[in-house]
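Job type: complex structure
Entries:
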Amino acid sequence: MGKITYVNGRFLPHGQAVVHIEDRGYQFADAVYEVWALFDGKLADPDGHFERLKRSLGELSIDMPMSRAALTMVLKETVRRNRIHEGLVYLQVSRGVATRDHAFPTPGTPPAVVVTVSRVDRAAAEARAAKGVGVVTTPENRWGRCDIKTVGLLPNALAKQMAREAGAVEAWFVDELGFVTEGASSNAWIIDGDGVLRTRDANANILRGVTRLSVVELARKAGLKVEERPFTPAEALAAQEAFITGAGTLVLPVVTIDGKPVGSGKPGPVAARLRRLYIERAKASAI
Ligand code: PLP
């Protein structure tokens, strides 16, 4: 059975799923997106992702394309039609289609909505988590509103490609003060020499990761100390452990930074525990 994609009210064979050349997402990156992890055919951490979607749209004055209930139905129906149980659901909402002009189109122009679903091999993901991954660092060069989840991801794409060419999985952006902001598609964490979990604070120019927030809560509940405080790559190399979080990576240990080992160079127990706890919570929250 072929892949099915939702585009503006229709479920289409993936190869026929197209958007207009004057979609503002295509021309101006004037669009936002969300990604849900899918466990057993259900959307994980639904509230966090729906709330962030609403916020991203609100910050850009793009109308919510439909009610949350209707959107949930569209997402779930796309999942159902693809018969995918373990994977990722991608939603993109653009400001719609209009003759090219930088300023907004006429009020009432309907937002354009696209939903795709992709499969994740959970066994392969677990094997990768058991081994850990490498990251590389790169100067922060993104705009000042990384808190909005827009499709304007060119710096992220370039950073990710650089990581791939270096044999790494993620790139960490480092700001002009020398602190890690976040990854190209994940939030960055360490467990420092005092055993404190550290990640960049949500008021910095980062995406407020839904997984990040869940992990902050889970870690505190598990009795771990969490500080939303920046760290440098040198501190990360000297840390007990490092890891990244995101809907795609969940909690994924980082074992090298720019080719140098973090701590022992092996995944540590805290990241492994948080990964287990997060997956349990994601499954319990899924709708
Ligand atoms: N930071 C960036 C730049 C991202 O693109 C993502 C996810 O795509 C994240 C962080 C993690 O966010 P979440 O946990 O909501 O998936």
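Summary: The domain at 4-120 is CATH 3.30.470.10 (D-amino Acid Aminotransferase; Chain A, domain 1). Residues 35 and 249 are 12 Å apart (CA to CA).
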